[in-house]
């Protein structure tokens, strides 16, 4: 058995010295005390075992044990008692004592076994404490490591999302730039929609979704013959049917992108109407969410105020009048009203 540090407290000098000699003979370091008060003063967490006499003047063994327990060191305590009373033994155990030994000590082998077992318990307690502390440190380190990996993963995902969105926007911009009449359409729609969103005090997450949806709302036109888009005259029935497929195609293009699941609905339905006569699904009223209603107004306004090869553009006042005329049937009235107020605040009512 490894050498241990033991604290003993007994007011009987002969008993104290006898126990001291026995323990040192077993190879332990012993700190003797003549009272409970001295024992509490000498007590530190470095001790492996405490041996207490029960009947001591002043602070008896039970009172001393209570103060030892308050330190929460986890040091086992063995009581020495000459009373020979089972009542004392039961009280000692109930207070948390590890064991008790009657005095005078007559059987050194039994005494040594009890001391040895108490010290082994102390070693187990210390090992368990060290294990828990090491485990806590390891958990903290792993948590920090995992947090860092998550941060890097989130950063990678964010960069990937930005890169993907920028690639799609580049393709859509390239499509628009093929026709001088549609150049800048996506940028203008995005600016108009964001102005409406800000006026409606949308949250940051909704504003992000709205912006991304605006940037890719016409991505489906990538698979539509640009000759249809640039055609100076009206489209044939067949051409118009193909053109009307671009919202559905656009939604299918972004469908595999996990980070743009909310935008799918907006892209697919940005040509729906409040009265349910739009395309591709004929949704209307409350079936359309607020973000879709916003982009519908922004997209239509830009189409009305931008010069196209097949029509003359409207002045701002004329476009606003058209928005107000179609509020309730094609557009959401509240969104129209807010957008008009935005345009008035920008001072565009009297200008092109």
Q: Identify low-pLDDT runs.
A: none
Top CATH class of the largest domain: Mainly Alpha
> What's the tally of helices?
14
CATH architecture of the largest domain: Orthogonal Bundle
SSE arrangement:
Blueprint: E1 5-9, H1 13-25, E2 29-33, H2 36-42, E3 49-53, H3 61-71, E4 77-81, H4 86-94, E5 99-102, H5 108-177, H6 185-199, H7 204-216, H8 226-229, H9 237-243, H10 246-254, H11 261-268, H12 290-305, H13 316-325, H14 333-345
Parallel strand pairs: 1-2, 1-3, 3-4, 4-5
Helix pairs in contact: 2-3, 6-7, 6-12, 6-14, 7-11, 10-11, 12-13
Task: Summarize the structure in words.
The protein has 352 residues and is α/β, with parallel strands linked by helices. The chain contains 14 helices and five strands. β1, α1 and β2 (29-33) form a beta-alpha-beta unit. α6 (185-199) packs across α12 (290-305), α6 (185-199) packs across α14 and α12 (290-305) packs across α13 (316-325). The radius of gyration is 42 Å and the shape is rod-shaped. The chain starts with a strand and ends in a 7-residue tail after the last helix.
